[in-house]
Protein 1
Amino acid sequence: MSGRFLVLEGIDGCGKTTQLRQLADWLPDSGLMPSGAQLHLTREPGGTPLGRALRELLLSPPDESAPGPTAELLLYAADRAQHVERLIRPALNRGDWVLSDRFSGSTVAYQGDGRGLDLQTILDLERIATAGVTPDLTFWLDLPLQESLKRRGARIDDRIEAEGESFLARVSEGFQRLSAERGWAPVAADQSADQVQQVIRGLLKDWLAQALL
Ligand code: T5A
């Protein structure tokens, strides 16, 4: 696979979507991408047509259809399997670049640390769903919990956000551990969006320079 696969991870409201949009505006003319390579901006859950249907079931289901913890885990895995098979792997094989808002680390943090589901089962599902596709570089937007709650403000919570503060605290600890274990690039997210973007661009340039050595 000759393309590049970049992922942003972090707790709800940490600024992933804002940062990905800015990256997607800048990257095509940055001189970093090979000529002819396309950029794909995507997300989990919901990066494919099937994924968009799963996203509805996961985040805004009618009460009677809300998945229990195991069904939730399997639905995130199904979303990822389809995303990898239909979008990410074909794009990387063409030499394109893929920028994804969340990937498999989110399942470890939310369903593992947050819900307390069995870690080995989660890792087995990760292996099945990703089928060998791993991000080249993952940025972890590290935002204090209180800042996340403040930023989300009066916005209506989705089903996962509605789990509350202690759930999110466990998820946050999970991301911190994962970032160290998986060699992610940590980015302090409690600064202005422009400052965060400058840090991400700098880290990306440094990483590409190393990768090309
Ligand atoms: N999930 C997902 C699992 O449980 N398991 C899994 O395996 C996966 C893949 C996804 C939900 O599903 C869960 C995690 C999530 O709960 P989502 O819609 O993708 O749902 O949810 P979030 O990732 O939480 O998306 P958000 O839109 O809430 O957060 P973002 O994208 O991180 O943040 P963003 O950019 O939208 O910014 C949030 C607010 O903060 C402001 C923005 O303007 C916006 O109002 N903001 C800043 N304010 C001040 N300073 C900055 N630097 C700012 N950057 C952004």
Note: Strands lie at 4-9, 39-43, 97-101, 137-142, 185-188.
Protein 2
Amino acid sequence: MTLDGLTKVYARQGKAGSKKALDNVSLTIRRGEIFGLLGPNGAGKSTLINILAGLVNKTAGRAEIWGLDIDKDQRASRAAIGVVPQELNIDPFFTPRELLEVQAGLYGVPSAERITDELLRAVGLYDKADAYARTLSGGMRRRLLVAKAMVHRPPVLVLDEPTAGVDVELRQGLWQYVRQLNTAGTTILLTTHYLPEAEQLCDRIAIINHGRMIACDTTVALTSRLDRKELRLILDRDLGTIPPSLGRYDAVHKGPRELVFRYRPSQTSAGELLDAARAAGLVILDLSTEESDLEDIFIELTRGGAEAA
Ligand code: ADP
Ligand code: MG
């Protein structure tokens, strides 16, 4: 899947000005991989997905799905993907079985080639096959939508925030199913604002913010770039100045009795910092550490100069 200079400007009705939701995004998703599009709310993730799904018209750029241009080969390119939308919109009076059958009909899948039962089993809804959709929980609806996206066995499955509103156990189940599909050959594109999800599932990750891509790399390379933690110490008395012996660490005063070290776990251990603080005569009453989160990644990456990948 190739995106080339994809741009979307939403016209704001009734108000002056418009919103550039996607700004010149180019990236390639390789066949067989699980690719993550990571970014905070409002970054432009759904806009990108909805352009691929044919639900939003792009302002500029090109996109190819499975080698098929979304403008020139509209029908074929849409048949090449299955999209699980962010919103859980399901007709409440359909049963899961009916929903999958109707969807298969829309895609022109002949009855003999339908895999309704197989899909219902795969997403753990076989025993709910004939229940009204309105009786399904949020997690079940999400899984039903995954099954719905797969009725025509597309080579590419696109999931927009697949685990939003899904509790922890079901999240694991959903991830497992996504991995299974991937192992069986399906290329996966998913969006998330939740770093652990991208970390656990994805081979490569693109980070977008304000419609711009600020990084695109393998998950391993990205997470090693995020090699940053903070150690916060609460001291027993006011600290006038930072002792000179701590000068070689990145330590800052956050309050009279609070000292914060920023460090790279791959290079410095928290133990070393504690030893150094004690050796400098500090008495530590309490401490905490903090991992870098998505916010830090953005700060880190944008500070280092936007990186077109
Ligand atoms: P994400 O999925 O990453 O949360 P979206 O793609 O939904 O981001 O939104 C990106 C930006 O575009 C946001 O500022 C959002 O308010 C705006 N936006 C999304 N859809 C529309 C629309 N239909 N009309 C106008 N602005 C929109
Ligand atoms: Mg979204």
Note: The radius of gyration is 24 Å.
